[in-house]
Amino acid sequence: MPTLRERLEEFFRRLGNLPSASSADEAMAQMAAALEEVEDELSGIPKKTPPPPPNMPDGRMYPPLSDFTMRNPDGSITAKTRGHIIQVGADGSIIIRSKRTGAVDFAKRGA
Predict the structure, then answer these.
(1) Model pLDDT for residues 8-67, shown as the tens digit of each residue
(2) Which residues does residue 88 pair with via DSSP β-bridges, in sequence order?
(3) What's the angle, vertex CA 91, arms to CA 90 and CA 97, rounded to 5?
(4) How many whole angstroms separate alpha carbon 16 and alpha carbon 108?
């Protein structure tokens, strides 16, 4: 079974291979679909609906919860997950940074 880090890398690979999104909502939908696909195929952990709270992880990665997603006046979206801060531009661009280090783990231009 792939590790969480290996699954995360596969998520980044698949997200990078998708066509560039043209809006923040399209980029968020792409991220959610790619992440759920990776976790369904590789995690071995059944999806819970709703997802468990961030302080009680079940080992599966989930898209950002609405409680941790902020829509900004400029049309961009900022979301937080357990390990990342995700910045999605109004143009569909994506920057995913590590909460721990601040390093960019993934970046993609919008359409």
Answers:
(1) 999 999 999 999 999 999 999 999 999 999 999 999 999 999 998 878 899 999 999 888
(2) 77, 94
(3) 75
(4) 7
Query: Both tokens of residue 24?
Result: 């923040």
Q: Which tokens go with 21?
A: 């999104």
Which segments of 1-111 does DSSP mark as H helices, in order?
Answer: 4-17, 24-42
CA–CA distance from 11 to each of 72, 77, 106 (Å)?
25, 19, 10
Q: How far apart are CA 90 and CA 111, in angstroms?
A: 10
Of how many residues is the chain composed?
Answer: 111
- What's the whole-model pTM score? 0.92
